[in-house]
Amino acid sequence: MLDRMGNRLMRRPRIVRSTHLALLLCVIPGLVDKAAAQSRLRIDEVVWGFDGTVVPQAFNPVSFVVHNNSSERYVGNLWIQQTNYVDKVDAPVLIGADPASLFLEPGTQRRVQMCVYVGDSNAEFSAAWGPIPGRTMLGQSQDLMRQRNLTMGRPATVILFDPNAVTSITGGKVPRFDETFFPISVTGTAGLAAVLLDHQPQWQEARQQAFVDWLRAGGVVHLFQKRTGEFPRFRELLEPLNSPLEEFAVGQGRVVHHNALLSEATTDYVETAIAPHLALQLEPEPEPTEEGPEEQNWQDYSYAYTNWALAPEMFPRLKEMTRPDHNWALIYLMAFVYLLIIFPGCWLIGRNRGDYRVTYGAMIGAVVLFSMGFKTVGQRGYGEQTSQHSVSIARPIDDERILVRQWSNFFVTDGDEYLIHHEGGTGLLYSTAQTMEAVAGAIIAPPQGHFIVDIPPFSSRTLASAGVQPWNGFSARVAEINVDSHLRALNLELAGTLPSESAVAYVAFRDQVYRMRRHETSLQLGSSEGTVETFLEPGKWNANLYDYGMMYGDSGQSPEKLFETSVRPMIAHDLGIHDEESRQRTFLSTDRLRLYVYTEMPQEMFAETEYLDGSGRLDSSREGRVLYVLDLERPQTGETQTEE
Length: 644
Description:
With about 650 residues, the chain is α+β, with helices and mostly antiparallel strands. The chain is about 20% helix and about 35% strand. The termini are far apart. The relative contact order is 0.12. Mean pLDDT is about 85; it is low at about 5-40, about 135-140, about 300-305, about 545-555 and about 640-644.
């Protein structure tokens, strides 16, 4: 496939051609130094996520150091490939499109970080290098798993440390993360909840911007004093951290000052002074109770399965939205005529003509003619139209940019090789988010950030993505709030480009969920939807997902209904709920509210699909929904409040 991609890319008139020139060159023998394939590289210091754990159903960073232990320079590519114990799955993630993306002189090393989509703890990944992705016999590979499964966990709270500092202050058993490995885009920070810091990290602009974007999108920074008793002063893009307030907001995130040294940040300190500032909280695990004789003798034989993973939940819904409208009467008539021609038609021809060549000719002609007829009628059943259906979870970073995590299904009638990307996006990450099959294509990591894939005619390709996209939307602030044990009154003032009147809005406060109703340029408190636990009962949104019809792609629900019932699993994903236990224990910090606005997805948020040969963009119908997520600071004055 890469050979065909190379030939077609040469004819591309756009700038994209230059970005992929390397992908072209890497398939032509002799253009890559043979030493690249023979050099022996070694990978060590592998770190998954930020504290050794990864967040399921999300893009997670994997950081490592590549050593060239040979006496020859290495010039080639490097990629990460996922497997499912048996074979390769998904598409390889290349460090870059350039065949010289990885250049190492003899005896040198390079720090590398890439982001890969992790579905669950059974995912397996290996790093490979050489001139051509997929042909590891020309290069080498090394397991990134250390012969064990990935550890799933909630977003991490870590100490950022400088590996080059003369003394490195640590706090108890709090996980530490090498600041030089901080992602270059906020799209790689899904697994990071909070950071403990006592100095200015030595970052270039890209990492500074990623850190500030993460903070504005809801991160929490805890600042500790230096040994002199002063708090660190920040420069350049990190200047927003310099406020003298004990606690203050930066976008949707928060900065907290601690009158302590970082060495005092023990595990107990984190639990009492750090964890309460996280937006998402967990109720303590219930104390185990001693079972009586009746409970010991009773066995529960009931079985219930809930798919808390968002990609497997969304993809069947999105695929079903491409529903054909076949002319079944014509198809049945053609099938009946075809059978009559085969028998007794061909039998009568052979009997009357007495020449087997005429009989076989008639049979072959009938097969060819009706095959073309069925193909034509089947194509018209799909309207001969390419379509894209998507759902997104989007969290504003500032007034002009928004962090988008998206799940899409592409249905094409014209089989070809395509380049998929998001116009104007940065930090773009892609994955097919499945572990069933290998994909004929390649994922190029940021900063290029795009997906090259071969899609057969009349078939679908699922895709999960994340990226920072341009944004000209709305903002909200709390104008009025009345609280006792529940919300009694709430008025949110909206500004900017308001969502449509048909948008559905919810507010999560503590462990409760409320429906909001639109009134001109504000959202006002509506009815209670119950607790987070009852609001996200699986029966309210996936009751039809695993019945006989849905397994085979037809639950009988309209696209509008499928979109309507998708909002709850998307909210569950945003709340970090991945199992029944977390559904029962999750609640929000009392100092904020979380606003959800579910509405039609703007056209500029969809992925663009281009023919790889440069012949233009693929025309398609596009339909989708987006769940906007805004964390709002709860005012501490001007409210009526009674705590139980």
